[in-house]
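Researcher: Please translate sequence to structure tokens.
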Amino acid sequence: MLTWANRITFFRLFCIPVFIGLILQFRERYTLDQNDPLLNNIRIAALLLFLFAVISDGVDGFLARFKNQKTLLGTILDPIADKLLLVSATIALSLPIGLKYQIPSWLTVTIVSRDILILLGALILFIIVGKVKFLPHFLGKLTTCSQMVTIVLVLMQAGSCTFFFYLTLSFTILSGLYYIYREAKSAGLNNNQVTV
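Model: Translation complete:
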């Protein structure tokens, strides 16, 4: 049965290509005419769509937890939708699209590298130990929140987004290191129970 929580998650997945399409449309119009009056409208549309997608994440989480709509499908799809939304938005806003404030490439590389390292680490632990369970941690939540705020501020073209570039970088590195350490510890790697 497809619950409302799952429907909202699917909607969030649908938002991703639409968001990227808006960013590419902005880039194309900016390349043709930097004074195009529609540029601001496209940027605001991308901002509203991203905010709507972020809010929908909270709504489907509420439905899953407090309205008894938690499903295996939702457990798998929800973090995938969140990660795809954040990573695709980060990459799109680090491209040379004509914005005054854009996500720097060093931050994008750090965010993507962290996710790849965690994914590879989880795969290695699964092969060695046979199970991997990444439980949420406040550092991970802070990282996600700072990434969301950074994307919103860049779309708003707020000068304060520069501060959040470094804040997000710090949280991304710290949470990545913590997740790797915690999973290695829970697998017994630091106690020589498993040798690699």
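Researcher: Any highlights?
Model: The CA atoms of residues 13 and 81 lie 5 Å apart.
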